[in-house]
Fold this protein.
Amino acid sequence: MTTLPQPLLRLEHISLSFKGVHAISDIGFDVAPGEICALIGPNGAGKSSLLNVINGVYQPQQGRITFDGQVRRQMRPHDAARRGIARTFQNIALFKGMSVLDNVLTGRTLSTRSSWLEQALRIGRAPREEDAQRRRAEEVIEFLRIQPWRHALVGQLPYGLQKRVELARALVAEPRLLLLDEPMAGMNADEKLEMSQFILDSNREFATTVVLIEHDIGVVMGLSHHVVVLDYGKKIGDGSPDEVRRNPEVIRAYLGTKH
Amino acid sequence: MSFFFEVLLGGVLAGVMYSLVAIGFVLIYKASGVFNFAQGAMVLFSALTFVSLLERHVPFWLACAATLLCMLLLAVLIERLVLRHLVNRPPMTLFMATLGLSYVLEGGAQALWGSQVHGLDLGIADVPLNLAGLMVSQFDLFAAAIALFLVLALSLLFNRTRMGLSLRAVADDQLAALAIGIRLQRMWIIVWAVAGFVGLVAGLLWGARLGVQFSLSLIVLKALPVLIIGGFTSIAGAIVGGLIVGASEKLAEVYIGPLLGGGIENWFPYLLALAFLLLRPAGLFGERAIERV
């Protein structure tokens, strides 16, 4: 009998409200290292809020977050990034005036060790580091098959490609935990399939733990190892895709009887 | 013909002085997408602080260092008291905040150091030199050398370092910048401090020429056509824009002025800027707005 691995992320009794409106009440679940965990639930169920709590955009009024064995209550987004949490946004938050390559390079900000003086004068650690950063960025760009648009300005790319660039920027940081807020929103079936494959590949190749929000139940069930169902800020289901599919409360609240 | 070149050269060198002011605007615009109305007030504030220290018999370099420290402190205060509270607000809100800030700085500078005119002697004589038959002001050459040095230093800093990329990131999308681990607050302090430093350089050179006085804060108005012509987002644009404004206003004054009764030097740059707005709204080197609708 082996001991269960320690969860990478553990949420306990998280509550978040905005001026009396409860966005999240008393939610807790574990995310095991290496798994793909999906958060599902109707609009307004608190999924995005929960993601925002995990990467420090919102501070929960109550609850405990344990990431990588360390308990915390307060975290700012840049601290979260420093600890290895990367994310993408529902409405795409890319740097629209910059090229694809530059956007991806910004994802390496935190792994820069050389000082600005070294960088400005191209001395010391800077040149080798710059090379390594660019190589890493090119690898991720190749991995997500966006090489043809490397020098294109991101604002001019179609929506589906922008979503991929955003994933690239998050991946290039070599995150321990990757948060994806509706990575497939607004895509057609082919694009969704392609995106699912990219997420699966990132999970396998880089052993990245993923927490994602997705509305397309078919995609979610095929992609994830673990599904957490939210409704009105409460957790109503938590388990493997099969367990969740059979959970009567989930069926009633979300999946509908005819699924 | 040598008269033409003399006017041209004089204009170009005067333009460098405009560029110095415009660079301060570009820095903050690059980092926050906002026209910093308070840049002129920062020029006044730094020059007044410097000259007042000098008059109290503080040695030149010490006064310089103290003023720089003061501008750094100011940047920290501006970040703490103003910028921090306006994260993710529309640029117009930030612009209004800089408008308010300019009044606070102008009032603060004068409350602290008084409102009389101070003479400032940087030890460079404003006398003409004879260069291959052309008469050139020694002071203008000095100003040009300073500007060149400043531009080199800034472009090394912003084009080669990660800071440059981070700055553009912050200006583009603050939420995304935070999520990839950029420290918004630190970037703002850096940028405002550097803009304060550039303001000090501009304030010293302009102050040496015009005297350190309230009207220094009005050189904002001279920088506006420079920025429109060069583009708000480019340091190179600020330089080229300054040169164009300086040269064209002097040439226009000399050659077209007599036909219109003179005094066109004061409004000619605005006319030029207006033409640029019609033909090339992003300026010569500015980033064109791109948006997929």
